[in-house]
Write a structure and sequence with these properties.
This protein has 147 residues and is α+β, with helices and mostly antiparallel strands. Helix content is 32%, strand content 20%. Bound molecules: zinc ion (ZN) (2 copies).
Length: 147
């Protein structure tokens, strides 16, 4: 998804594209994987304060533009929510995530949906997350270089 598509997609939300919003979107678009909150703060610290970044992320999350992932070490990670071009009306579905043990990259497995679960009524479910760990497609292609 490029910036033009993002702008087109944001239009119905009535969201004004302020500089922090554009910058944060740019970071997401230039990464093909999820971005940690720490990384987002590091990439924006020269330009915006933490509160601005936090508010921007909250606004995007509320609108369903990004979604939050809890990493294997409880780190907070954000990923762009991909809405298929063919079906823009299709709501975002909870999917599995892949965490690479080599590069620590986290990827959305958009077509691997979180299976539905049935719990007794006494439980109030707030969220369900599933993380797959292993070696990602990029690390898998690189042979280990001898030191
Ligand atoms: Zn990797
Ligand atoms: Zn995801």
């Amino acid at each position: 998804m490029n910036m033009k598509e993002i702008k087109y997609w944001l239009k119905p939300y009535g969201l004004k594209l302020t500089l922090p919003r554009l910058k944060v979107l740019e970071i997401f678009l230039s990464n093909n994987k999820a971005v940690t909150y720490a990384e987002l703060l590091r990439l924006t610290e020269q330009v915006f304060d933490r509160v601005t970044v936090y508010r921007t992320l909250r606004a995007f999350e509320d609108l369903g533009i990004i979604h939050r992932i809890v990493g294997i070490n409880s780190s907070v990670i954000y990923a762009l929510t991909i809405i298929s071009k063919a079906d823009k009306k299709k709501p975002h579905q909870q999917h599995l995530h892949f965490s690479c043990i080599k590069c620590n990259g986290v990827y959305c497995l958009d077509d691997q949906l979180v299976p539905s679960i049935t719990l007794p009524d006494i439980y109030e479910v707030h969220s369900l997350s599933m993380m797959v760990t292993g070696i990602c497609h990029i690390c898998n292609e690189k042979p280990d270089l001898p030191l």
